[in-house]
Amino acid sequence: MKRVILAIACMFLIAACGTPQTVEVGDQKYLGGNDGVIVSFEPIGVEEDGVETIYDDEIIRLEVVLKNKGEHEVAADTVDLKLLGPAQALFEDVAAWEISNAGVIDSVSEFNTEGGEEIVTFSTDGRYVNPITGFTDLQWFVNYAYDYRTEAIVSDVCFKEDLTDTRVCTVEEIKNIEVSGAPIQVTSVEEDTAGRAVPVLVFEISNVAGGDVTLQGEEFNNRFGTVAYSIDEADRWECKSGGRINEARLIDGKATIRCKLKEALPGGELSTKEVKFTLDYAYQDIVQQTLRVKESSS
Q1: Which of 274, 28, 263 is nearest to 161 (CA)?
Q2: Spatial separation of the C-alpha atoms in residues 119 and 98, rounded to whole Å
């Protein structure tokens, strides 16, 4: 009788829970995501009708918070911020119109899923000195630029000399990839061939965060973006994008990079290997905040 009851209980458990799921914990190389450094204004005044508001006899405290929401650590003094919008002559005692981060901003990680942050202060006691009748709305902007990195790992690159051999792995297919959290993403990797025993990896990359991108140390271009790239065992691969070596130009936010093995595989080669691909770049974005300044009664 006990066996019958136990069997019925097991049947109910299976029906309730469905097919058992296999969950792999702790084996992710990256958390992923589409963000790098995110900047937002700290409250400036009291919110009225959805607008931050102060009176013209009050001080203006201008601060922004920098949050690193990607998986690349940001070094000190590498996020450049510029306060833009109203003419500087309309204010007194704004301490800085251009400033950089003071310390390291930690990346997102398994143990710090929110990432690091830092508050940057442009002004603690600034004042608007232009005469006001009624009120005026000031449109503040902070333009910010920073160096960043995207890493991608292709887990199952197939090194196969004899393409008729169906064992172990497949050459001509879309590959599994893991990509670090960053504003430039590797969206897909396809393995192909460039003749017998010459593997080719085709990387598709995309600017997914909507900002501007360029090579580190260079000016931003509003017509296209540019990134530098590298691959594991670079001496074995020849990588090009639109004929350019070591850099790719993003048109409409996208680019293709082809990496071809320089020498054909030796006879009988049949193996798989993990390959790491890296993008380095400077990234730029802008945030906006409206501040309403009211005429005081005095």
Answers
A1: 263
A2: 14
pLDDT at 9: 44
DSSP 77: T
> Is the CB of residue 282 less than 8 Å from the CB of residue 149?
no
pLDDT digits (tens, 9 = 90+) for 226-242: 999 999 999 999 999 99
Rounded Cα–Cα distance for residues 127 and 140 (Å): 14
Phi, psi (degrees; rounded to nearest 5) at 296: -80, 160
Look at residues 88, 46, 39, 48 and name the one whose alpha carbon lies nearest to residue 66.
Answer: 39
pLDDT in tens, 71-120: 999 999 999 999 999 999 999 999 999 999 999 999 999 999 999 999 99
Q: Are strands 37-41 and 212-214 parallel, antiparallel or unpaired?
A: unpaired
In the chain, the domains with their CATH numbers are 37-147+284-294 (2.60.40.10), 148-282 (2.60.40)
0.85 cut: is pTM over it? Answer: yes
Give 183-223 as a DSSP string: SEEEEEEEEEESSTT-EEEEEEEEE-SSSEEE-TTS---SS
The residue to which tokens 């192909």 are assigned: 192
Instruction: Note the pLDDT of residue 5.
Output: 43
179 neighbors 188 (Cβ within 8 angstroms): no
User: Cα-flanking dihedrals φ and ψ of residue 103, to 5°?
Assistant: -130, 180
In sequence order, which residues have a C-beta less than 8 Å from that of residue 18 and are 6 or more positions away?
Answer: none
